[in-house]
Amino acid sequence: MLYDVVARLMLPAAWWGRLRVEGLERVPADGPLLVVPNHDSQWDPILIALAVRPRRRLRFLARASLWRVPGLGPFLHGLGQIPIRRGTGDAAALERAVEALGAGEALCVFPEGGLSWGEVLRARTGVARLAQACPRAQVILCAIAGTTDYVRFPRRPRVAVTFFRPAAGEPRPGEEAPVLSARLLDEIRDRVAPTPAGRRALVGGPPRVRKRRA
Questions:
Q1: End-to-end alpha carbon distance in the chain
Q2: 1: which DSSP letter?
Q3: How far is 82 from 175, CA to CA, in rounded Å?
Q4: Is 4 among the domain residues?
Q5: Which of 200, 189, 24, 35 is nearest to 127 (CA)?
Q6: Domain count, the chain
Q7: Residue 211: how many CA atoms within 13 Å on its side-chain side?
Q8: Which residue(s) pair with 161 in the sheet?
Q9: CA 1: distance to chain centroid?
Q10: Angle value at C-alpha 96, between 39 and 111, nearest 5 degrees
Q11: DSSP conformational letter for 95
């Protein structure tokens, strides 16, 4: 109930961003699902959820610090989101995510673990560990572009969300988690390059590779 109410309240954001969705027919209407997108803007979760809403409701693995914002924690809990302490190997959060997949739910996980800030990040292994823990889950990749322009008011963004299946196939038995996470992220970033958030564009050469812990 709360999810649908919030989605309706956020529809003007999709209108302002001139949201265009492609590949929605590739998103299964039921069964365990992992949606794996890039992450360049704080608007990404909202626009991805709105884009996929005709097919599924999404739960997100979101950084646990959001639950410390006054009033936000109960709201996120009501929306069914799952807090995770990034960079700590949060086994409890991953267990909750596996339970959600086992119950046939749709889960969204950002393989970069946080905003790219216009840099090329190494993929974290959480998404691969979830795929391996729930082999029944289908993996759908998601390329989202244009959300970094929301802060450049009064210029209207042009947001594009594209859902597609991994060209190299679903996770394979025995495939190492770092290899799987990296190939999924590489396919997404082949479609949309890292884009800096904020009003000022990134300057000074090509994106740098920043290491992150799994």
A1: 35
A2: -
A3: 26
A4: no
A5: 35
A6: 1
A7: 1
A8: 21, 144
A9: 22
A10: 20
A11: H
Contact criterion met (CB below 8 Å) for 182 and 188: no
pLDDT digits (tens, 9 = 90+) for 61-120: 887 877 788 878 787 878 888 888 876 677 888 899 999 999 999 999 999 999 999 999
Nearest-angstrom CA–CA distance, 137 and 123: 19
> pLDDT, tens digit, for every residue of 4-46?
999 999 999 999 999 999 999 999 999 999 999 999 999 999 9
The token duo for 121 is 């990040």
pTM score: 0.88
Q: Mutual orientation of helices 91-102 and 126-133 as an angle, nearest 10°?
A: 40
Q: Which amino acid is at 136?
A: R
What DSSP letter does each residue of 81-114 carry, written as one string? -EEE-TTTT-HHHHHHHHHHHHTT-EEE--TTSS
Whether residue 213 lies inside any domain: the answer is no
Task: Give the domain extent around 101.
Answer: 21-200
